[in-house]
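A favour, since you know our structure tokens better than I do. Go ahead and set the record down below.
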Amino acid sequence: MDYAKAGYRDAFCNALEAVRGEGRYRVFADLKRHRGAFPHATWTREDGTTADVVVWCSNDYLGQGQNPVVLDAMKTAIDEAGSGSGGTRNISGTTHYHVELENELADLHGKEAALLFTSGYVSNEASLSTLYKILPGLIIFSDAQNHNSMISGIRAAGREQRRVFRHNDLAHLEELLAGAPAQAPKLVAFESVYSMDGDIADLRATVDLAKKYGAMTYIDEVHAVGMYGPRGAGVAERDGVMSEIDIIEGTLGKAFGVMGGYIAADAVIVDAIRSYADGFIFTTSLPPALAAGAAASIRYLKEHDEVRQAHQARAATLKARMKAAGLPVMETSVSHIVPLLVGDAVHCKMVSDYLLSDFGIYVQPINYPTVARGTERLRFTPSPAHDDRMMDDLIRALEALWAHCNIARVGGVAA
């Protein structure tokens, strides 16, 4: 394109038209959650009118964003310290709230130390990219379905310093490990719960394989912290391998209901990443209120395993209800994620739009690039607060729309 003649604006317009033409242009619903009434929210339409809706796709998996314990801690922090943190942690932005939260996180994961970042994305990208600086010649072995934030961090080095193994394929991982230079530092990077398919990695076998070849392990527990294990430390805690994993990464923005990301590891690892990671050094730290709310949420969930039990029961119930109705729940999910396969971007958005406009049910379509083309889906995340009446309403709406939008019940691929 000759930008001098066509103008830069045309390039942006063409890019948007390409997305619209594929049926995957994203429209954000204008929602305001109801305090103390999760998962209810008010939807504001484009014409300014409003309607009450039930949210079915929040990553606030346990409704902790509405827990009075969390809200009270945040309000107290504002009253005590004000709004912002004052800057980067290296200059003026470390507060006692950050120190308390990092102590809670280290305790949660049974590690010597923890380090806060502004988001789960930043914690992955910054930590993984920084490991290349600390370990010259490092080769990272990455699961093919790792989150974009992990991929971004791993791509910080050249192709010769990364290997991608087929999703959850430990035979392929071992093949790659065996073929790598024996003296090179190595790290296996993977997730516990994969958020789109809902499957869970074999943590014990992965850790054992990494040890066999002298590799460190880095696990993303973003979709598991708060929700698995007796204290909510994640699948690694549930499966008894937490102490054997070198670096655990997690988020404060999902089950804990607030915002932020972190890593937990031996003190020397955390201190080195703190000292070298651009994504930590050069960004303003979390406000005191967010740190205080996250710490309160972690403390609460450490002591309330019944919330996790209720959450798992609700997810299992929704899966069973959908299967009984002949709806194509993806069999990959063995977790709290309930993905319903549609298989076409246009139909996926159509169902989502009708659920919101006609039934007061909010669930966003999941399209490329979040998932591969042809695997478009609706991703439901039932919480302990999604009761049987809400499930009745949802199943009735889906049954009606699966016929109305001409989507096959068996196999889930749009006709």
Observations:
- The longest helix spans residues 305-324.
- The two ends are 37 Å apart (CA to CA).
- The CA atoms of residues 55 and 362 lie 5 Å apart.
- The longest strand covers residues 50-55.
